[in-house]
Write a structure and sequence with these properties.
With 333 residues, this protein is an alpha/beta fold. It is 21% helix and 29% strand.
Amino acid sequence: MLGPSPLMAGDELPVAEARVRIHAALQPITDQETLALRQSLGRVLAADVISPIAVPAHDNSAMDGYALHGADLLADAPTVLRALPGVTVFAGTPLAQPVGRGQCVRIMTGAVMPEGLDTVVPIELCQVAADAAGDTVTLKPGVLKPGENRRKRGEDLALGQPALRAGHVLRPADLGLLASLGVAELQVFRRLKVALFSTGNELRTLGQPLEEGCIYDSNRFSLMGALERLGLEVLDLGLVADDPVALNATLDAALAQADVVLTSGGVSMGDADYTRDLLAARGEVGFWKVAMRPGRPFAFGPLHAAAGRTAWLFALPGNPVAALKAGSRWAHV
């Protein structure tokens, strides 16, 4: 139940109570669809995304330097190692040959750690000297601990672990994360569909001549922008004259497609009586007088179509500032 209509009774409805009533009446969208990753920005995940790989996928170097056996490090004397001659391990090209005790190998950031090696010394901490047999790498005591500068397989994200949870709104960084996991498609909730129109004989749309006493419709455009920024699907139904036949036809079109019907104008006490009667005949619409300025007159409730569909009406005041403020207030319930 939406409760009595404070507008008709002359009482003001506190904003907090209005939010509670709206929140209690609405149900979240449950319909789902599968989208390509590149189309999913701003959408809401309908299921957990489980990582199909470990991140990182293998032990790898966190530094440019030399990979070595941590057990070769001396605590109280310099550590001298022989580098594999002419070998550098790059990312994407694992080392095929073994690296023995007392040896090390030049390695770049992101490269797979050679088998048996567990530590990387940054190049700036090394003293490298060349001789006939190749390079020797000397480390001062205490500059490095065994296991340092190695990223372990799965330390960021383990295989089979949820990468993102259902209900998460996808941001640009999330798309990058999912692409790094090889995820090409996502299960998301479909977008809320909002049918939007403005009412009033004094309104003209862009491109029409402006007769004396008329104004251009601005509410539809500001509300459309606010809705699209929220990631909603907006169905622009244009302008509707102050005429019951026209309003009925527009409501029929809205109810056939939308989850929400958003209008501006026609809900104040001074507006045409047929508007309230027509809306009330289609559902349980409450005409409220909310304790906020601007945005005081407001109508909310379910509208029922002949085919059994129901959409929720949010009818905002016609004043442009009031319409945008009220629309922003109630869109985030």
